[in-house]
Amino acid sequence: MCEPRASTRSPPLGYGVVTCTVRVSEHPRAYDAFVEISASSRWARWVGITGRRAGRDPNRTPSAPAVPILADPGPVVGPGAQRDAALFDVTFAVVDVETTGGSPTTSALTEIAAAKYRGGECVGEFQSLVDPRCGVPPLISLLTGITDDMVRGAPSVESVLPSFLEFVRGSVIVGHNVGFDLSFLDAALGDSGYEPLQNTTIDTLALARRLVRPDVPNCKLRTLATALRLEHLPSHRALDDVRATADLLHRLIEHASGYDCFVLGDLVDLIARPAPRAARVSEVG
Predict the structure, then answer these.
(1) Half-sphere exposure of 128 (CA within 13 A, CB side)
(2) Most-buried pick from 52, 214, 225, 282 (CB within 10 A)?
(3) In 3-state terms, what secondary structure has residue 234?
(4) Mind giving me the DSSP string for 149-167?
(5) Cα(234)–Cα(285) distance, integer angstroms
């Protein structure tokens, strides 16, 4: 539940600030996240207008019933997702994980983070380190800054997953190369006796390839964050990468308006279209 709190900074004229607390765990490294939420932003104002337009346009053809739409790496419309929901009304849960390696069959989670956005504004954040029950390879520690000492005694993945599932329930899950994150999360869910995630998913990597690939050297998250001058930069820590991915999502939704994309179904269908041809380079990272 969101409760108004006093802010230590004076917000710009016309902006209100609300702070939300999301309890993740009692573990000292799984902290409560305090989120300052501006009541207005460029994207929120824009998508609010277009969202209301999408909802009120009497000449708009209703979107087709929700059916799975697969593409590589593939958006999915899952249970509870409304294809005709205006983007302003959609709750996006941006997720990212850090791991001990590249495959869920041989590696384990070390960190899980997520943040929920609605109308362009952050309404809550989730973050927890996870005990992988194995050593963190030196190369991974060098890349992420996560060491054996940091995860020793951290919550088990089994204890973190219930809070994570509650946090993302009913949301559209978003990630950059989201298939990687979901492969680890689904593997952990299966090991803990849960079903795989069935949320609608949006991959900002696929969306960036469709919308901005000709204008950038590659579609790595850091490249896009720098080229598009996003507020947050990724650092290979889960919460930092979540914030950068959220910035990217909102910027890409702005670009998508040029394709008459105003509702969730439009966004899913846009990702499913073939991306412009470009020189093949690695875009993961």
Answers:
(1) 27
(2) 225
(3) coil
(4) HHHTTPPPHHHHHHHHHHH
(5) 10
Closest C-alpha among 129, 98, 110, 132 to residue 31: 129
Q: Which two tokens stand for residue 99?
A: 């791991």
Is 255 known to be catalytic?
no
Cα separations (Å) of 272 from 206, 210, 213? 8, 9, 15
Does domain 16-272 match CATH 3.30.420.10? yes
| Annotated catalytic residue within 27, 232, 236, 250 | 236
Structure-token pair, residue 265: 């179904």
* This prediction's pTM: 0.75
The predicted-structure confidence for 162-220, as pLDDT tens digits, reads as follows 999 999 999 999 999 999 999 999 999 999 999 999 999 999 999 999 999 989 999 99
> What are the backbone dihedrals phi and psi of residue 145, each rounded to the nearest 5 degrees, phi first?
85, 0
Amino acid sitting at position 51: G
CA separation for the pair 285, 282 (Å, rounded): 8
Type of residue numbered 182 = L
